[in-house]
Design goal:
single chain, 83 residues, alpha+beta, two-stranded antiparallel ribbon, 2 helices, 2 strands, binds zinc ion
Length: 83
């Protein structure tokens, strides 16, 4: 029986989003007062959550192909059952 592996891809959309969030945060701190910092912080957290979700991929341990999510029961490529 195969299982789902989590694969972290460093070069991906996720990293760009996280980088963008960090840049935005620095810009907000530099430009504005407390409100700007709070708003930027909320955006930063949201971007980090989205970014880290996107930078992880779920792959099948049997064939190494990407599966749509971690709750998938059967690999769409090799039809192996996933734990
Ligand atoms: Zn597979």
């Amino acid at each position: 029986m195969a299982h789902i592996q989590r694969k972290h891809s460093l070069i991906g959309v996720g990293c760009w989003i996280q980088g963008l969030g960090l840049l935005l945060f620095v810009a907000a701190v530099w430009l504005r007062g407390l409100v700007g910092i709070i708003v930027a912080f909320v955006i930063l957290v949201a971007l980090f959550v989205v970014g880290s979700r996107l930078s992880y991929q779920h792959i099948c341990s049997n064939c190494g192909n990407r599966v749509p999510g971690k709750y998938v029961k059967i690999c769409p490529v090799c039809k192996e059952k996933l734990e």
